[in-house]
Automatic annotation (TrEMBL):
The lineage of its organism: Bacteria, Pseudomonadati, Pseudomonadota, Gammaproteobacteria, Alteromonadales. One of its GO terms (molecular function) is transferase activity. This is Sulfatase-like hydrolase/transferase. Keywords: Hydrolase, Membrane, Transferase, Transmembrane, Transmembrane helix. PANTHER family: SULFATASE, SULFATASE N-TERMINAL DOMAIN-CONTAINING PROTEIN. Signal peptide: none annotated.
Length: 722
């Protein structure tokens, strides 16, 4: 196109058009610089410090080759996009320039056209992406469909007229070629937008069911109807759950997206799959997932899809045939923070152009242009129509910072003074609509004619709500030192930051069995204690006929156990004594004050990260080992949780049924703490090799037992004296 355009420019009045082009380009770049500075004023942090806060990028990381390449690519694409726009404006001036030879008149014509083009782009940006910082026309008559359509058509007609005029002055053969290629170029997007989308239907000779794991980031069970919440917050999810088998008390192995998903897909605890943190060094992680090999052997196409990959780097290296989602890399955070430019926003979701923005397209972290239905569309189009599918898809709209492409209306009935919690609720509505759309489209494609669906969340979210706080027991309050009150952080913002915050680790887990598009499974809540690591063994157990030899040949070993299929399936004798392990990520001090000041929060941890050759942010291996020592660790049994904190001698026993915590050395009840302590020490013994914990020594346990019986006697004596 530039060649032909150049010919067009040189054909008439060459100097003036060429000059106009460079004038236009200079003007657009000047406006872009103003826009970037204007955004800076609004944002209060620089793009770099925001990026630093989010993915721990330090200035020296900019030397990383992969990161430099990604940033250069983005800058180049933005430049070329604006150069093409300058070319369109220049060409549009041509027919008017032919009429007048007066330079002043020409300049005025140019200015008018430039202004109209800028208004069109700004209006369209404000109309389609109203939360853009540069959407100043939002709410004005300029940002309405009718204005944009009228102005767009006028300018388009002007451009086409100019183009045809240019071509008419050229030799006929190249002209025809150029017109044809131009028409194709402009018609392809129109075709893609308006084509008749006959839904292709899934048909397979295999009798194996499609397996869908549908993950929703940060969805708290207590915000759903089955735990007594208002149904209107997530109508579609509640309806789906009312037809599901719900594993009511399910915990994540760790309240972090990547670690939780590693648990889901490996069936192993973090201690055994190597993923103890988000952004863990890839060489320390056991991959690919053996279950994917087994599924591939059984004829499955395996797909992983996620709409925010800043903290979840699962990709083809983990054994998936296909991976959908934005590109993974540290450049994500920087690009997402400077990307908000009208022309870029308008280009991101366009067919053909979207490939130029691998860090921005279907990236929920760039919420200003993220279109939930477009992500659904991408995932659905990747699914095989003749092979059974294994799809693990994760929807991240519910992740902090709880923003979306559209403005959130204020629902005064829901406002509780907690801003983050309010926004979270509103995003629950949005992700509810997205998942409903996704499942409806699976059905329409025949993908639910024979399917197993697991619905889960990767972790909960802490908002310091009053109902989330654990209370100290009377004994704890009484025996605590007056100067040193029972300072224990029992609640925290976010997820993975505090394992005493039950709402951070409790997750949704439910399963459905579809036949002919309808769920046919038993419905209800199943008693027991479950973990996300139970999903992988359940899938393998259902993969009949899977012989035990295949499993052993794939070296399939799981920490989890298959989930029960129905409510009548009697709990195995040891199910009541099942122990579930939950560990924290890095406990971050400033997270307990507020997580709005993410710059401060992350400055505590930023030095733990490095950027690799491929442009990915990764925790430094040496920090990784040190950070493991800072973890909080816990084990659940029945309604009890036993917690070991990193810099606290106390062992904390939590009664989750009554939302109370005890200092174990003051405890006198009948909680099975001895076996819990044994399994906690056993499960994390590798962590304690270099830094042994006195709590795991036999003498410590003996003294606890003595204390325990003393306390019991004391309690009895006290009761009888009453
Ligand atoms: Zn998550």
């Amino acid at each position: 196109m530039p060649d032909a355009a150049e010919q067009a420019i040189t054909s008439t009045n060459a100097v003036s058009l060429k000059r106009t082009f460079f004038r236009t380009l200079a003007m657009l770049i000047f406006l872009m610089v103003i826009a970037i500075n204007y955004k800076q004023l609004l944002q209060h942090y620089s793009a770099f410090s925001l990026a630093n806060a989010m993915t721990h990028i330090e200035p020296e990381h900019l030397l990383s080759q992969g990161l430099m390449l990604d940033l250069t690519h983005f800058a180049l694409v933005v430049f070329i996009l604006h150069a093409c726009w300058a070319l369109v404006i220049t060409l549009s001036c041509r027919p008017w320039f032919v009429i007048s030879s007066n330079d002043n008149v020409k300049t005025q014509i140019w200015l008018v056209l430039l202004l109209l083009h800028c208004i069109l782009v700004l209006s369209a940006n404000a109309y389609f992406y109203p939360t853009s910082l540069l959407g100043f026309f939002r709410g004005t008559p300029l940002a309405t469909g009718i204005t944009i359509a009228t102005l767009g058509l006028l300018l388009f007609a002007n451009f086409i007229y100019a183009l045809l005029g240019t071509l008419a002055s050229h030799n006929r053969r190249t002209n025809t070629l150029f017109v044809v290629s131009l028409l194709v170029f402009s018609l392809v997007p129109i075709y893609l937008f308006t084509r008749n989308t006959n839904t292709p239907v899934f048909s397979t000779s295999s009798d194996r069911p499609n397996i869908f794991i549908i993950g929703i980031d940060g969805l708290r069970p207590d915000h759903l109807a089955y735990r007594g919440a208002d149904t209107s917050l997530a109508p579609a999810l509640n309806q789906l759950l009312s037809k599901s088998l719900i594993y009511d008390r399910t915990y994540t192995p760790q309240g972090r997206t990547f670690v939780a998903w590693m648990g889901v897909l490996s069936g192993l605890y973090p201690t055994n799959n190597g993923a103890r943190f988000n952004l863990a060094p890839p060489e320390l992680i056991n991959k690919p997932f053996p279950i994917l090999g087994l599924l591939a052997d059984a004829g499955y196409q395996t797909t992983y899809a996620i709409d925010e990959r800043r903290f979840n780097q699962i990709d083809a290296n983990y054994g998936f045939d296909r991976v959908i989602g934005p590109k993974v890399g540290a450049a994500d955070a920087i690009i997402a923070n400077v990307a908000d430019l009208p022309l870029v926003n308008l280009a991101i979701n366009l067919p053909l152009l979207r490939n130029l923005f691998p860090y921005l397209y279907i990236n929920r972290a760039y919420g200003k242009t993220y279109d939930p239905l477009l992500f659904n569309h991408e995932v659905l189009h990747t699914l095989s129509l003749d092979k059974p599918n294994f799809l693990a898809v994760h929807f991240c709209q519910l992740h902090w910072p709880f923003t979306s492409k559209d403005f959130i209306e204020l629902d005064k009935t829901r406002w509780d003074g907690n801003y983050n919690h309010y926004m979270y609720g509103e995003m629950v509505r949005k992700v509810d609509m997205q998942v409903a759309d996704f499942i409806a489209k699976l059905g329409r494609r025949g993908l639910l004619d024979n399917a197993v669906v697991y619905l889960l969340s990767d972790h909960g979210e802490g908002f310091l709500l009053s109902q989330d706080r654990l209370a100290a027991t009377d004994t704890e309050v009484r025996t605590s030192h007056p100067e040193q009150p029972t300072a224990l952080n029992v609640a925290a913002w976010g997820h993975g930051t505090n394992i005493l915050s039950q709402e951070q680790s409790q997750v949704v887990l439910a399963s459905l069995r579809y036949r002919d598009g309808k769920p046919v499974n038993p419905v209800g809540k199943i008693d027991g204690l479950f973990s996300l690591i139970d999903v992988a063994p359940s899938i393998v157990a259902n993969l009949s006929p899977t012989t035990s030899e295949t499993i052993s040949s794939k070296r399939l070993k799981f920490d989890g156990q298959p989930l029960p299929h129905d409510l009548t399936q009697s709990l195995r004798p040891n199910d009541n004594q099942r122990h579930i392990f939950v560990e924290s990520s890095l406990p971050v001090r400033s997270i307990n004050t507020s997580f709005i000041d993410d710059k401060k929060v992350m400055s505590e941890t930023a030095s733990h990260y490095e950027i690799r050759e491929d442009g990915r942010a990764v925790m430094k291996p040496e920090s990784y080992h040190n950070n493991i020592q800072l973890k909080q660790r816990s084990v659940y049994a029945g309604h009890w949780q036993l917690v070991m904190l990193p810099k606290d001698e106390r062992l904390i026993l939590v009664d989750t049924a009554n939302k109370r915590w005890h200092n174990l050395s003051e405890y006198a009840g009948d909680a099975p703490w001895e076996t819990m302590l044994d399994s906690l020490c056993q499960h994390y013994h590798v962590d304690f090799i270099d830094t042994p914990r006195s709590e795991c020594s036999p003498s410590f346990k003996q003294s606890l037992i003595r204390n325990n019986s003393d306390n019991a006697r004391y309690a009895k004596g006290e009761n009888s004296s009453r």
